[in-house]
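Long-time lurker, first post. I've been practising inverse folding by hand and with some scripts of my own, and I keep getting stuck on stretches where the structure tokens seem ambiguous. Below is the full token string for one chain I'm working on. Before anyone asks, I'm not after the true native sequence, just a reasonable design that respects the backbone. If someone could post their per-position residues I'd love to compare against what I wrote down in my notebook.
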């Protein structure tokens, strides 16, 4: 299924779903209840299942409640750390807004990577991905709350779905418990019930992460090695013999008439794009203490502007950097090879003559630079290696469009479960983390007054962080 066809089908599904939602709510309007900006549809669906699990597996739940509370604390610490790290990054590196134009606080809605220009960071989230993921996340989260509530003897009144009154496409699930019974329970019981939802989301994310790994093996094959650039080195000015074949006389003004500046020293040959050459010469003129230029080693790759990912050499498949190195060892300087690459414009072919390696003259030199998996760091490594299972230096061919479809579906189910688990443990009143944090502080201080004060201070700090993040982003447009 092509990209355009998938979008068309997805938008049709979105339209049909909206029609169904309005029809569903209209037919059941006598069973709906408004609470603030939400419209609640209450049922008894799943109540017996919740009661059965809560009563049947008491020994297991008795152990898991402690794990759930521990996970709740870890998630709360993690989301506060990530929030602080984000603010630190925006303050220390304000230029980040030049690269990432999207606001730091984003709504998780269908097509948000396209809407906010984040296609380079996230795969597309089609509506069908979004609706399936949200349904799984909401049901798992709320059912777990209900199971732990029943385990602690809290009556479950109903289950159901909550719709945004003016935009019912935004919805969530809920399990209605007896709040009076809940408040009479001890702090440990309440904290286990409150953290049960995010605990279930983490478990669900782990399960789908394993499924994702198997789908990755089915959906992708390593089929090339990305070219990140060309090998370069420093050129000592006092060692320059010629520039563009003309003897160097100590000045650079006579060598600006070609697109690629060729420099020969006592030991090597270098190439510098004209624009880079002019910029470096300008810096040297401003600062005479600079005694070197920086250029690419003369090689067939840069002379022919080879780019993209190398997939074949003389029809031999390249799957990783080891393949590239081993194949090149079969050739000598002066041998002609045909390199096949793939880039955004499709497949390209280059006829190249290998040169001598600048250090080992007996080895052939293609002149491409790429990063191995251990050289890639930061967010890119996290996103590619951990979340996508991809070596960032390797180009992967897609094996089957249906495998690809389900791979990214499972990817979003995994990620949204993680995000919901993290965000829900923010110590803010409307989230699970709000009451969870208050109970934790109350257990330490034994004072309602102290607990209220600590909670208010943290709430104001978090609010200030959100305001600062949005302010930094808004100022980037001025």
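-- Answer (accepted) --
I ran through it position by position. Result:
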């Amino acid at each position: 299924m092509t990209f355009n066809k998938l979008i068309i089908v997805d938008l049709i599904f979105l339209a049909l779903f909206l029609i169904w939602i309005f029809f569903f709510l209209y037919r059941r309007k006598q069973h709906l209840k408004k609470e603030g900006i939400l419209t609640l549809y209450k049922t008894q669906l799943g109540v017996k299942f919740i009661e059965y699990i809560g009563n049947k597996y008491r020994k297991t739940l008795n152990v898991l409640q402690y794990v759930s509370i521990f996970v709740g604390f870890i998630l709360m610490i993690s989301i506060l750390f990530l929030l602080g790290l984000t603010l630190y990054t925006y303050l220390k590196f304000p230029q980040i807004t030049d690269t990432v134009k999207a606001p730091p606080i984003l709504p998780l809605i269908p097509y948000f990577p396209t809407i906010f220009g984040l296609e380079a960071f996230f795969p597309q989230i089609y509506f069908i991905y979004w609706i399936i993921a949200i349904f799984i996340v909401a049901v798992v989260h709320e059912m777990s709350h209900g199971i732990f509530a029943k385990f602690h003897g809290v009556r479950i009144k109903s289950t159901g779905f909550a719709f945004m009154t003016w935009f019912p496409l935004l919805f969530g699930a809920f399990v209605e418990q007896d709040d009076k019974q809940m408040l009479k329970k001890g702090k440990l019981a309440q904290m286990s019930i409150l953290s049960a939802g995010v605990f279930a989301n983490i478990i669900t994310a782990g399960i789908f992460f394993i499924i994702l790994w198997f789908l990755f093996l089915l959906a992708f094959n390593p089929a090339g090695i990305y070219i990140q650039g060309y090998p370069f080195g420093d050129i000592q000015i006092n060692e320059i013999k010629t520039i563009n074949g003309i003897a160097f006389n100590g000045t650079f003004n006579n060598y600006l008439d070609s697109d690629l500046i060729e420099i020969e020293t006592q030991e090597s040959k270098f190439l510098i794009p004209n624009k880079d050459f002019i910029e470096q010469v300008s810096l040297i003129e401003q600062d005479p203490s600079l005694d070197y230029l920086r250029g690419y080693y003369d090689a067939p790759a840069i002379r022919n502007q080879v780019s993209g990912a190398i997939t074949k050499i003389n029809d031999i498949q390249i799957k990783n950097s080891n393949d590239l190195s081993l194949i090149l060892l079969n050739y000598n300087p002066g041998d002609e090879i045909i390199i096949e690459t793939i880039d955004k414009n499709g497949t390209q072919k280059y006829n190249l003559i290998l040169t001598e390696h600048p250090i080992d003259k007996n080895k052939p030199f293609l002149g491409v630079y790429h990063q191995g998996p251990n050289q890639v760091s930061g967010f890119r490594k996290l996103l590619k290696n951990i979340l996508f299972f991809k070596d960032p230096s390797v180009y992967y061919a897609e094996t089957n469009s249906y495998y690809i479809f389900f791979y990214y579906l499972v990817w979003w189910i995994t990620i949204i479960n993680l995000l919901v688990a993290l965000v829900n443990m923010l110590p803010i009143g409307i989230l699970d983390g709000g009451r969870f944090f208050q109970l934790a502080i109350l257990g330490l201080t034994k004072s309602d007054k102290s607990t209220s004060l600590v909670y208010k201070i943290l709430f104001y700090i978090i609010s200030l962080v959100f305001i600062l993040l949005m302010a930094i982003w808004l100022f980037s447009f001025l």
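A couple of notes from the structure itself: The chain has two domains: 30-220+398-475, 226-365. Confidence is low (pLDDT under 50) at residues 372-380. Happy to go over any region you disagree with.
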